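[retry 2/3] Bet v I/Major latex protein domain-containing protein: previous attempt timed out, resubmitting with same input.
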Amino acid sequence: MVLAGKLITELGIKTPAERFFKLFASELHEVQNLCERVHETKLHQGDEWHDTDTVKHWTYIIDGKVHTCYETIEEVDEQNKKSIFKLFGGDIDEHYKVFKLILEVIDKSDGSATVKWTVEYEKINEDIDPPNGWMEYLSKCTRDIDAHLVKGARVAL
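[retry 2/3] Bet v I/Major latex protein domain-containing protein: success.
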């Protein structure tokens, strides 16, 4: 009876690692404008989007269904381009005791970059399926953000 698990996906991106990470580290409010599967996000508690004590409310689509949850930032490691987000409330609490998204943006030796998403979870019981829909959701959002940032970089030139 395994209740805890991890799902991991890595995606190559065209955006420089520093720029992609910056969106999540200091421009998180922009995600709703860049990802078609994110319908809305708003501050629920707190004044600053990137403080660890701020709570955001997210509305998004996974597997064709609208979901909601709350999110806080547990950690931001700018040197290693890594952020940990804790999700709770709404649909998350119906299935999971623990649910974290870990974002790592990795510079490659050839000048390219990779985005690594890890979903760490603990199910409330063994009848709950792993959150496999999150992998497609994160992959699609990563592609949407990368396309927007690459397009923006071309316009800036």
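[retry 2/3] Bet v I/Major latex protein domain-containing protein: The chain has one domain: 4-156.
[retry 2/3] clearing retry counter.
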